[in-house]
Design goal:
- By secondary structure, the chain is of the alpha+beta class.
- The radius of gyration is 18 Å and the shape is globular.
- The protein contains eight helices and 14 strands.
- It has a six-stranded mixed β-sheet, with helices on one face. Strands 2-3-4-5 form a four-stranded mixed β-sheet. A two-stranded antiparallel sheet has the order 1-14.
Length: 270
Amino acid sequence: MTQLSCEAGEVENNLTRLDNVVDEYGHSHDLIVFPETFITGFLSPEDCHTLAEPLNGPIVKHLECQARKSNTSIVVGLYEKEGENLYNTTVLVGPTGLLISYRKTHLWAGESSAVKAGNYYRNCSWQGTKIGLLICYDIEFPETARAVASMGTELLVLTDGNWDGPVHRLANKARAQENQMFVAMANRVGQLEETAFCGESVIVDPYGRVIAEAGREEEVLSATIDLSLVHESRQHYHYLKERRGLFNIPSKEIGREFGKLNSNNSNRQS
C-alpha cells in the first residue's frame, strides 16, 4: 500500500512518484496500490475535462508499461473520460495490460459537479485470486462490499482520498469481517486547501483483524496475506451463503440489477 501525497493537476510529477515506487518495489511485490485519483489529484470540473483520459489513453498505456517492466500489478485512481462523460475511476493494471476498471458509484458531496457516478460493480481473476475494487466513500455503504463479495471476491482493494481516519478504519474492518474477505485500503496524505488527508492505510483480514497499518505520514506499507484465511473463516459460518432477504440476487445478475435500479430511479418523478 503506497501512502503518498500528490499534486492537483500535476500529472507528470505524480506519475514520476508512482514510477519511483514501482521501480523500487515492483520486482519484489505482486501488487502495489496507490490512492484515489493519485494520477491527477482531486480536480475542479474544468480541470477534469482537460486532464481526464480514456482508458486507452497515454496514462493507462504508461501504467501498462511500468507493470510489464517491473513484472508487478498496479492499482491506482485517475479521472476517466468516455465521450462527454467523466468518471472517478480506479484501474488494475498487470504485466499483460489493463485487467479491470471501476467507476466510483457513491460520490462525495460536490463530486457530481465534475463526474458521473458509475453503475456497476466488478471483479476479476488475478494470480488465482478474485480481486475487486471500490473507491473511498463506497466503503461506507455495506451494500457495495457485499455486492462485490457476492461475485466471489477474496481481496477487496480500496483506493482512498479521506481525511476522517476513524470512520474509514471502522468501515474497512466491518466490510472485511461481514463479508469474510481481505480488505486493503491505500489512503493519501498531504494537504489540499483546508483539507488534510489522514493516511492510516490499512490491510484487514477476513476476521476483521488489522494485519498491517500505516501512520499519518508518507509510507509504503508491505504485507503478505494468507488467502487460505478466506476459506478458513467461512468453515463454521458463511455469511454470504446463509443470508436471507429481498436482495438475494444471483451474482451474475448484480451488475444488471444495479443498472436497472439506477435507471428506474432516474426516471422517477417527485
